Structure formats: structure tokens, C-alpha cells
């Protein structure tokens, strides 16, 4: 079994999903879970793109130990310098440099000749290697590039010191046969190819990112890039959990394995979905709600006779046992703390106290507190940024009826600490509520998208709401959970506004690049 | 360009998705849209499985003209006879017979020897061909079957009169290389293979259903089976829209085309999502909300310079322009009717009157009525089954506040026409509402799952709710839409209860098979 390295870009390419906007604390929680999951390399962001990205990459680089942390950079000295500042504290500083090699990108986007692209790449790889022991170079839009130009530039950047060569299918254009052939061609024609790791990076625009990634592996790639739940630009990246499970389940056919702890798959997927608001569909492979559900009578009959008739892997293999009950109202703080440790969550004393308080509140209202509920509570605490002054919900009420006018009344504490109150009507309860919040908040607000979901089933399930607002022209997302849909909606709206304020606070200092 | 036939099983394998339970009217609307989309063959159900399925298949077979309609049957005379009764009125009656050929299925599920499986298949294909001009035979779990046994049984069922041979990857186990080789092997070893169409049928458990389907096509399959949005058992079937678009976009590489009208893709996807409650994730290829969205600064910059830098297909190609505004409060009935015709929707006079009324009501409350809104309204009308006496919501009100106890008051007309009222509290507004409905409804109810989504963005967007209930032990789903989240939730709950009552009404007559 050859070991394939898993390069996770959930926090960089994944975070480029429209409407996703993670803060530092959220990124760190995802990074810690990725480390627990066992990913080999973790792309934490694009340090030169903004102050916020820089800080998140630095925090993750300084914290994560068992996974190599990398950051993206354009082929510019200042990008490399900023990335070095962010990454130098990591266990094995690693840079990810990219420059496009396809005719259309070179001509229209870069306005550079192939020679300029080649020379810039070589020069910047050399420059980067003065700082970084590991430098990955990506040929952006490689699958629409001239193969012989790729051979030439790859040979030269390897001579310049690149340690990993990545061949991205940036637009999700390739097919398994074509992508496999490209890897084979490069291995046959790049004379010094054995000095580096070859990497795949696939997008799912035609629904084939996973198969393309595996085709690359069959043709010599030793690293696979992708994201959890396949999130990313447009249709997203190759879904890492699908790649890893396919290699595992078909180990009779594919002679490759990863070092991922597959039993952490479901938890990793849930965390990413929760924090990004990018929910997976019920029929998503491996981690969808239905992925292990058998519906038809014929299938159920087969499952009763022998599970292997319709099951090629067990739900337990990927940590799918979220129905397991957790604890009830009589559970003590000690048992509670032990359970969190089982999850691999580290809380300080204050956080633990707050989590236990919220757990107790929930047990008063909900008979069965599940692992999912608990995870939601803890994540809210771990990703809270209450240090910055912002809007706080004091109280609110909503009246809705088919025969009266929906009305909301809200009392808020605003960032200057003053209590403000208003009441508004709307066509529905959430509209009335959002009109009232809008009236009380000083920024210019425009609601782009609103979602609400329940965590688990049952009438008393937690509701989780995600909103996307445009605040003073800038898109910001927010999430909130509560046992009530209206309250969860209020929390999500305020969360977006507060995230905007926090962001403004940080950003005002320095904007690194546009 | 070889033409590849598209065999859609959204209404059979797709409808086997856990929690999905379409009624006759809903199935017919989906079938009509599939006909407009241009699918070659449409599997409408499994007629022998229940009276409801039988009736839906018959209605679709009698209605649809441009698409060949088929139905599933086990290798049993009674299944074939029932299927014939359902399908004989169709333009080209077509049967889909299946029997498992893998060792594990034969030994544990069927408890039959390979010889028995072979003889039964041959006998039942012969029997079916006495009625049906077209008979497809499927080797269930083909990808885990002995290849030489497949060669033998396929040769024999072709001699018995099968016109299509389907090679299902029932458990979603295969890989592109392996599946392609299997098709090649069958073409090389089954002496009479040229007499039939070869078909692929892939499941997405390892995320490779689309690539596997195309690998089959590259190795001689001339028919691809799958579903819209890839719904189906577990992780679902191959997503037909992804297969078709991949062949189209990469027509330089793949020399195959389909006769799908790709510009109907988005509408087909939306309809299936709406009626099944199986929403697609934002990063779903082709039809996801983000599939054509570009987020990072670098990508946006490229798009401004030349769209082809990051776009391999246009959103218009697949009918993605749902943001287009529709009409406002001054639009007349005539313009309204014309717009519906543009959609390809046929409404009778009563339905048109009702749709226009609801449209006018909506324009009073909502500034911009979109195509999506209109589609939601029309679909509610087309799939209504108001003939059967059931629960009707007379009025309700809900009060929610952070400082008081959530309370709902509901007045219902019950199936016997009597008005009943109750008020209950709950931990949240939906819980209070559902407690009250539960109290007023006589059946034994248990809520399994609750979802709510907004149709489009904005504070005044329509809300669409899906619930899954267990009613007297039987799973039933329901959906409802309204401009308010609470009202949509009430509608969905009652819809599930009413669907159960309607179903009981029909089913009490005859249960065909368990």
C-alpha cells in the first residue's frame, strides 16, 4: 500500500465558497479537527489577501503540531514575505505558490508571455526556498495548458527548488482518462520529476472531482488536494472524505491508503457544515443523512438477511452514529467534562463552566441531549468573540396569526451600551423581526439569504439559522442556534452584524491587498 | 457523435430515497417535466409494489407521449402481469425486469442457485416478451458478480428476447476503470451482445457514479440510467444532469451526445427538489446555488477580463437565470397565462383562476414576484388533492418571546367537518404549534424530521417547509409553503397528515405486495 498524502484546503479554497466567511476562532477549531482527522497538510489561508487571513494562518501555524501548515501566495516577493511571517512559527513551514500556465489565463488574466510565466515562477520558487524548507508550486489551470509547456516549466521550477508540483484542474474541466494521461505524460517527460511529490487538485464542475483525483493517484500523484464536504469555488473541490473512503473500501483494487482516521469523518464534516453554513445534501456520499439508509422493502429485506447485500461499508467506519444518546439532566459536571474529552475538545475552566450551564439549561427543556446538541453548544462557546463591543439581544417577542398583523418587539443593547427598543410589522414573523432589528441597527443592511435547519429530529430539536447580509455593501454571513426558529433567526441576524463590526475593527488597521 | 439514451429513474429509484413519498399528481408533474427535458426512457415506478405505485405508473403511461415509459418488476409472473396492466396504454410498453446475480445476493437474499437464477431470468424474459415489445433485464449487483456467470446469463436472456441489458452497480462499489473493463469484457465475450442496448446504472456511495457511467459509455454502453439531482437509495444514483453536461462540455473528448434539452436542467432540478424535499447542496455540480458563483478576488478579476478564464460553461446553457424578475401587481390575467405557457405548464380554467388569485395575493405582499415564486404557486395547485375530506387549517396564532411562554392557538376543521380548537405551550414557537396540532389530530403522530428553507433571498421570500412524521407507525412526509416560517410549518405538518389520510383511503382497497 503506497501512502497518499491528504492536503486539505477547506480553510483556503473551501472558504472561497460564496457566502462563507469564517473568523479566526472558527478557522482554528476546524484546523484542530483536521489535525485530529489526520490530514497531512492543511492550507490555512492566503496570508497576503487580508489582515484577517494573515492572523488566522499565523494562529493556526503556531498552534497545529501534527499536520504541516501551508498558505497560498502569488509569485510576488511581498506575498512570499507576508506568508513567511505567518508561517515561520509552524513545525515545518510550507509555502504554496501558484501561477497560471494556460493560454487563456496567460493572455487575458496575467497579460504575460509563457517565457515571463516561466521566469517569474523560477525566480519566485528560488526566492521562497531561501525561507521555506517546503515549497509547492501550482500550475493554475494546468488541465487547459499546453502539455509540453508544462513539462518545461515543471522541470525548471524543480531545478529552482520546488519540492511539490501540483497540477490543478482549476475549472473542473478534466476527465479521469485525460487527467490520468497528463500525470503519466509528466512522469514520462519531466526528467527530474522523481525529486518531487506530484499532487492533484480537482474541482467538481462536471461531477467527477473524486474520480479525477483517484485517476491522478493511479498515474503517479502521491498527494491529493481537496476539502471536507467538497466545499469551494463554484461546485467546489474534490471531497476528501470520498477520496479516502473510496481508497479504503476498494483497497482490493486501489493499492493506496491515507493516514486519515476515518472514524473522525462524520464529526469533521458536521463541524465544517455547521461553521460554514454549507450543509450537505441528504444524498451526499459518505456523510449525507441518507448515505447509510435503506428504504425499499427489497433492500431492507436483504439487509436483514445479510448486511453486505446492500452495504459496502459500515456507518461506524466513518463515525456515523449520531443517534447515540448522550446524557440527561442528572449528569454531573465530571461526567460532562469526560464526555467532552472523548470528543477531543479542550475547554478552559471558564468555557467548561459556561458549557455546563448551557447543557443544564437544555436538559430542562429537552429530554434527550445528543452528541450533536452538545457539539453545537461547545462550538458556539469556542468560536465566540465576546470581547468586542457589539449588539446584544436583551429581549424580544413576536406575534403571528392568520387573522392579525405579524408584529415583533425587540430590545437591544447597542455597541455603546445603550438599550434601544422598537416594534415593527411584517408579512411574516421573521420579516417583522428582521424589520425591527434593521430599524435598531445603524448600519445599512440588506438580507441576501436566509436558511433555517433543525439539528436532529423531534419537536424539541435545536434550530440552526444561517443568514447572509450585505452590510454597507459588504457580504457577511451569520449563524445562530436556539430551541426556537424565531430566536435562532434573531441570533443569526445579530451574529452577522456583530461579525461585520468585529471585522471592521480588525481590518481598519491595514489592508494588505485588494 | 453517437447518441446515448437517457433512462431516468427519479420516480422509481429516486423515490426510494428515505423520507420521499410522492403522490400520483406530483409524480405526473415530474413525468411531464422529464418529457419536456427530453429523457428517452422514464421509469415511473414499481407497479406491483403497491396500489398507489400501480396507479401512478398507469397514469403516467397513459399521459406521456414523447418519452418511453417503463416500470420495474421482479422475475415473477404476477409482477409482470400487474406491470402490463399499468403500462399497456403507453406509446411503447417497456418492462424492466431484475434479478440479482452476485454470490452474496443469490445465497443470502434470494436463496437460489446460479442455475435457478439463470432459468428464472430466461423464463420470465420469455413470458414478458409475450406482452412487452421492449424488455430490459438487469443483473442486480452486477459489479459484485462473477464475470463469466454474467456472460452466460446475459447471452441466455438475450436469446430469450431481452432488448436491453443493464449492468447495475447496485451498491455503488465500482470504479471507472473496473466498470469500463466489465463492459468491454461483456462486449468481447457475449456472442449475441450486438442485438441489444447495453445500459449503465450507477450509485454514488463512493462519489464516482458520474465517472463510472461515462466509463461505461466509453466502453460500449448506449444507455445511462440515473436520476435528477442524483437522488435515490443511500447516496443516490448517477446525477443525469451531470452526465449530460459533462458529455456536452467535453464533446471535444467524448464523442457522445444526448437529446436532453439542457436549458430545462435547472427547472427540472428545482421541481424534483421541491416535490421530494431533497434539496441540493449549494456546491452541487451544475444545479447548486453556487455552481456558477465566483468568490475570490482573483477569480472575479479573471471573469471580468475574460469569462472563459474560470467558466467552462454558461449558466444560461442549463437554464440558470432564476433571478430574472417576473411580474408585479399590475400584470393582468392574460400576461400571467402567457407566462405560464412559456414555462410549459398546462392549467385548466379553474386552476388558472386559482393560480391568478394566489399570484395577486402575493403581489400585495411582495414587491418582486419571481419565476420561482410562480412555479411554487402553480405546483401547489397542480399537486393538490382537495377532493378527499381531510384536516383544514381555519386559523391559528403563535406568540413567542424571550420572556414569556411560547403559546399556539389553532382552529382546525377535521375530516368530519367539525371545527375543533386548542391551545398548547412548547419550548419554541414551532413546538407549541405542533403540540397543538398533535392534540387536535386523532392519529398517533411522531415528528421525525423538520426542515424549513426560503425560496430565493430577501426578507419577504416564500418559506418552504418539509416535515417527516410517523403516523400510526408509518413514515409520511409533507410540505407546505407560505410567506411566514410558522405558517409554512403548519401547512407542512397538516399536509403530511392529509397525505396519510389520502393514502389510507386508496390503500385500504388492496395491498399488492408487502
Can you walk me through this structure?
- 2 copies of one chain form a homodimer.
- The first copy, chain A, has helices at 24-37, 51-63, 77-87, 103-110, 114-129, 147-159, 176-189, 209-218, 240-249, 265-276, 297-305, 333-343, 349-365, 371-382, 429-440, 485-507, and strands at residues 2-3, 5-8, 41-43, 68-74, 94-100, 134-140, 164-169, 197-202, 223-226, 256-257, 325-327, 369-370, 392-401, 407-413, 419-425, 445-455, 462-471, 474-482.
- By secondary structure, chain A is of the alpha/beta class.
- Chain A has an 8-stranded parallel barrel with strand order 2-3-4-5-6-7-8-9, surrounded by 7 helices.
- In chain A, helix 2 (51-63) packs across helix 3, helix 7 packs parallel to helix 8 (209-218) and helix 8 packs across helix 9.
- At the A-B interface, helix 4, helix 7, helix 8, helix 9 and helix 11 of A face helix 4, helix 7, helix 8, helix 9 and helix 11 of B.
- Strand 13 of chain A pairs antiparallel with strand 13 (392-401) of chain B, so a sheet runs across the interface.
Brief descriptors of the model:
homodimer, 514 residues, alpha/beta, eight-stranded parallel beta barrel, three-stranded antiparallel β-sheet, 18 strands, disordered C terminus
Chain-wise SSE layout:
2 copies of one chain form a homodimer.
Chain A lengths: L1 E2 L1 E4 L15 H14 L3 E3 L7 H13 L4 E7 L2 H11 L6 E7 L2 H8 L3 H16 L4 E7 L6 H13 L4 E6 L6 H14 L7 E6 L6 H10 L4 E4 L13 H10 L6 E2 L7 H12 L20 H9 L19 E3 L5 H11 L5 H17 L3 E2 H12 L9 E10 L5 E7 L5 E7 L3 H12 L4 E11 L6 E10 L2 E9 L2 H23 L7
Parallel strand pairs in A: 1-10, 2-3, 2-9, 3-4, 4-5, 5-6, 6-7, 7-8, 8-9
Antiparallel strand pairs in A: 11-12, 13-14, 14-15, 16-17, 17-18
Amino acid at each position: 500500500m503506497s501512502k497518499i498524502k491528504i492536503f486539505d484546503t477547506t480553510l483556503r479554497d473551501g472558504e472561497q465558497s460564496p457566502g462563507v466567511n469564517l473568523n479566526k476562532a472558527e478557522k482554528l477549531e476546524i484546523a484542530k479537527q483536521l489535525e485530529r482527522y489526520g490530514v497531512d497538510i492543511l492550507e490555512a489561508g492566503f496570508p497576503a489577501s487580508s489582515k484577517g487571513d494573515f492572523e488566522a494562518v499565523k494562529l493556526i501555524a503556531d498552534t497545529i503540531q501534527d499536520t504541516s501548515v501551508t498558505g497560498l501566495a502569488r509569485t510576488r516577493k511581498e506575498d512570499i514575505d507576508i506568508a513567511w511571517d505567518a508561517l515561520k512559527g509552524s513545525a515545518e513551514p510550507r509555502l504554496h505558490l501558484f501561477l497560471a500556465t494556460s493560454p487563456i489565463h496567460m493572455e487575458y488574466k496575467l497579460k504575460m508571455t509563457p517565457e515571463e510565466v516561466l521566469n517569474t515562477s523560477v525566480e519566485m520558487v528560488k526566492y521562497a526556498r531561501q525561507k521555506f524548507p517546503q515549497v509547492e508550486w501550482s500550475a493554475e489551470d494546468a488541465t487547459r495548458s499546453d502539455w509540453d509547456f508544462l513539462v518545461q516549466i515543471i522541470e525548471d521550477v524543480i531545478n529552482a527548488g520546488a519540492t511539490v508540483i501540483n497540477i490543478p484542474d482549476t475549472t473542473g474541466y478534466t476527465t479521469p482518462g485525460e487527467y490520468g494521461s497528463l500525470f503519466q505524460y509528466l512522469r514520462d517527460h519531466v526528467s527530474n520529476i522523481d525529486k518531487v511529490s506530484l499532487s492533484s487538485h480537482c474541482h467538481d464542475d462536471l461531477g467527477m472531482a473524486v474520480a479525477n483525483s483517484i485517476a491522478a493517484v493511479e498515474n503517479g500523484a502521491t498527494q491529493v488536494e481537496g476539502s471536507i464536504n467538497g466545499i469551494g469555488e463554484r461546485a467546489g473541490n474534490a471531497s476528501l472524505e470520498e477520496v479516502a473512503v473510496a481508497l479504503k473500501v476498494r483497497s482490493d483494487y486501489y493499492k493506496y491508503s491515507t493516514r486519515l482516521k476515518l472514524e473522525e469523518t462524520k464529526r469533521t464534516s458536521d463541524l465544517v457544515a455547521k461553521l460554514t453554513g454549507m450543509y450537505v445534501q441528504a444524498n451526499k456520499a459518505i456523510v449525507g443523512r441518507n448515505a447509510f439508509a435503506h428504504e425499499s422493502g427489497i433492500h431492507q429485506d436483504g439487509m436483514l438477511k445479510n448486511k453486505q447485500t446492500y452495504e459496502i461499508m459500515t456507518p461506524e467506519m466513518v463515525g456515523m452514529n449520531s443517534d447515540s444518546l448522550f446524557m440527561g439532566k442528572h449528569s454531573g459536571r465530571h461526567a460532562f467534562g469526560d464526555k467532552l474529552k472523548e470528543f477531543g475538545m479542550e475547554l478552559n475552566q471558564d468555557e467548561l463552566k459556561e458549557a455546563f450551564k448551557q447543557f443544564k439549561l437544555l436538559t430542562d427543556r429537552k429530554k434527550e441531549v445528543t452528541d450533536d446538541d452538545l457539539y453545537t453548544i461547545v462550538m458556539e462557546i469556542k468560536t465566540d468573540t465576546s470581547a468586542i463591543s457589539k449588539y446584544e439581544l436583551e429581549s424580544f417577542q413576536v406575534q403571528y396569526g392568520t387573522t392579525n398583523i405579524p408584529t415583533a418587539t425587540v430590545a437591544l443593547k447597542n455597541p455603546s451600551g445603550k438599550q434601544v427598543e422598537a416594534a415593527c410589522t411584517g408579512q411574516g414573523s421573521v420579516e417583522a423581526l428582521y424589520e425591527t432589528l434593521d430599524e435598531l441597527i445603524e448600519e445599512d443592511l440588506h438580507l441576501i439569504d436566509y436558511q433555517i435547519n433543525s439539528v436532529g429530529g423531534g419537536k424539541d430539536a435545536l434550530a440552526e439559522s444561517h443568514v447572509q447580509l450585505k452590510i454597507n455593501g459588504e457580504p457577511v454571513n451569520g449563524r445562530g442556534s436556539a430551541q426556537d426558529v424565531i430566536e435562532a433567526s434573531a441570533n443569526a441576524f445579530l451574529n452577522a452584524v456583530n461579525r461585520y463590526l468585529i471585522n471592521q475593527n480588525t481590518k481598519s488597521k491595514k489592508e494588505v491587498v485588494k
